[in-house]
Amino acid sequence: MINHIPLELPSLKRITVDGKRLYETPNGNKYPSVTTITSLGSEESIKAWRKKVGNEEANKISTRASGRGTRIHTLCEDYLNNEEVKVDLFDIELWNTFKHNLDDIDNVYCIESMLYSHKLEVAGTTDCIADYKGILSVIDFKTSGKLKQKDWISSYFIQGAFYAMMLGEMVGILPKQIVILIAVDNEGSQVFVEKTEDWMPFAIEARSEFRKVRGY
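Above: the chain sequence. Below: its structure as tokens.
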């Protein structure tokens, strides 16, 4: 059984204003999401990829990847919540080679919880904040069709730094680590662990750049 230490966190609203997807905080402030901010730098590469493979094929790949990611996220949540895990036939092999990583997680503070920062003017939903091998960490669950290299996934670490800083501002607890757990098709899994403090400056820079480009 995985231990839980639930935090009392407010519920935020997801809203759309002038075509912008935002989170609304309890006091009415409206902030862009972490993923919206970190996706800024990848917009051109995504456009180029879609042009290369064609919109129809790109949509099929994106839908398939999104569905797989959602299913694995749900399995992780159920497992960490000490609930029955029901695995889809198509995901059995991937799940069986990935789930052992979750055994290093304990003392779960929150799962799929909404966070925000008035200082950074940002909000988002974190996958999990818990102890990973005994160290308080922001933990993100990812899926991939191929093995990743660290320098390909800087946006993951920046996301983690955002979540850590938001939690620190809200409850006074700053996770020391960012842990990225990736379920990889036909390859098992990958684990990346980084110090939060190393990525905080990049998160602050990403927020500043987004404000310059998008104006909010």
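Residues 13-214 form a domain with the Lambda Exonuclease; Chain A fold (CATH 3.90.320).
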